[in-house]
């Protein structure tokens, strides 16, 4: 039996794993390998939260492989050289992997595939991350979509529930051939920052089993009523599958099929709304593939001349650590720091505060999210920030400025989310919990350490943003 290197990347699962499936169906003995090479990711090497999740996910994958009779090689070094050396050592005939769509990785993988084939190896990649490859959907003119609604309409018209593949109960052991044993995750990946990630694991269980548990919990408790509950900050109304999808611990095809198979007990509006969220994830990856500059620059070229404010360090630090004086913004930023995650509605609110009221370029926010989110996905992170800033594909207009007090009253009506993450404000009566500066005596008495005023006056910040946008339009 010949051997194939199954190169795991952001697809840390055995279920519905196309590279592993191809190796087995073609009669190759699979040699599972993960190569840690953060310096190959361009300007977006994984952040600290991603590294913390990845260590646990790889440990879970390794345990699953060992339970089935195989094992995972975790290596650190240049990807191409490591694959070539490992293929020579083991006599592997092929290298198989699932595709990634980050610009630097797409270019790197193309070079790797070309070099491996030139060396006589079978090198092949598969779609294991998306419902559609980015080159499979286009407008009638043959252009990539830049607006979500027609993109998703086209995708839904063409999409068929796919056949998914179950991982086998047993796998052949790579010990039958010469494969290195003196490798370990501790040598390949950096150790997590001591104690910082403790709160992550009270909310999440990294790994394939954790992904299945999250999907089952969502199907059983939150899919019914999702369309209404998904925006409520204090409720567990979202799936919280985003880190599992980012690390490929569950396939998006498996998730989509499970939602469609949920049955008549689920209202079509709830099912369609969640599928549309998968569609937004899809759209973000398609946009990044076709416009590879978007992680670094505005998709809308008009904003190259926009009058962004100078990013004052004290203001940025206050935003990062939940000290803006705006309770819903501070709650979101503290949730992020303690759990590695933030409710999606609150992500939009904190991003709007930074890019509109403070008029700070979205890159500063995107970089902070990149380092602190466990679901830090380059396509989704870029899409989310450019959408809120008004600079990206199908973006909210720049003149749409979220009022954080109005947003808090609507999506945290009983103040529970603010009380949880900004506990010094929990003793305030409800109206003051949304805008404590309006009742300074109460604020001074109950929360003397909390900022007396927001970083900027809400009306003045909004007006300055609108004036900057109006100036941009006049110069065009």
UniProtKB/TrEMBL annotation:
Pfam families xrefs: DNA_photolyase, FAD_binding_7
Domain Photolyase/cryptochrome alpha/beta: start-end pairs: 2-131
Keyword field contains Flavoprotein: yes
Record PROSITE patterns: DNA_PHOTOLYASES_1_1, PHR_CRY_ALPHA_BETA
UniProt keyword terms in alphabetical order: Chromophore, FAD, Flavoprotein
Essential cofactor(s): FAD; (6R)-5,10-methylene-5,6,7,8-tetrahydrofolate
Organism domain of life: Bacteria
Family statement drawn from the similarity comment of this UniProt entry: Belongs to the DNA photolyase family.
Name the record gives this protein: Deoxyribodipyrimidine photolyase
Organism from which the protein derives: Pseudoxanthomonas daejeonensis
Species classification: Bacteria, Pseudomonadati, Pseudomonadota, Gammaproteobacteria, Lysobacterales
